[in-house]
Amino acid sequence: MIAKGRVHKFGDNVDTDVIIPARYLNTASHKELAAHCMEDIDKDFVNKVAEGDIMVAEKNFGCGSSREHAPIAIKASGISCVIASTFARIFYRNSINIGLPILECDEAAKEIKDGDTVSVNFDTGVITVENTGKTYQAEPFPEFIQNIIAKGGLINSIID
User: Fold this and answer.
1) With contact defined as beta carbons under 8 Å apart, do 129 and 112 qualify?
2) Which among 152, 151, 149, 127 is positioned nearest to 54, based on CA atoms?
């Protein structure tokens, strides 16, 4: 499985309250959550993001509350993958549960720039910056996680 898209870059400690502000948690609509994704850190994010784009951040991405709304908002906005130096533990698991691929790779997270075009091979863990040819190695997903992501989330992988 491969993802390829334009990078939207963020820094350290992007918490779930910034990913999807609490004032929008009164809806279960994925489309409505996506409409407010990242607005407290980048008001224009929803107008810039395109289907398949990739989010890159540095350390401790997804810290804060354990709300599943955060990875749902990111995925519903069109982001195909999140790369970060590190993820908050609960955000990491929530992302896998809803089928949002996330990879930890400190070097890539620090060096990839906003606007770069990046491809990610989930089978090998290779991250490639298409405009420079530079590659990074992340830990590839084990087969069972690849299955969860391919089926769109944990519930879908159990039902099948």
Assistant:
1) yes
2) 127
Could you tell me the CA-to-CA distances from 95 to 47, 66, 70, 73, 81 in Å, in that order?
23, 11, 9, 11, 10
pLDDT digits (tens, 9 = 90+) for 95-150: 999 999 999 999 999 999 999 999 999 999 999 999 999 999 999 988 888 888 88
CA 72/CA 30 separation, integer angstroms:
7
Print burial letters for 127-140: b (CB count within 10 Å at least 16), e (below 16). Answer: bbbeeeeeebebee
Note the pLDDT of residue 156: 61
Q: What is the DSSP string of 90-128?
A: HHHHHHHHHT--EEE-HHHHHH--TT-EEEEETTTTEEE
Give the chain's radius of gyration (CA, Å): 14
What is the token pair recorded at 8?
């939207």
Write down the pLDDT at residue 28.
86
Cα–Cα distance, 26 to 99 (Å, whole number): 22
Q: Are 32 and 58 in contact (CB under 8 A)?
A: no
Model's pTM, two decimal places? 0.93
Cβ contact 102:95 at 8 Å: yes
Task: State yes or no: pLDDT of 69 exceeds 60.
Answer: yes
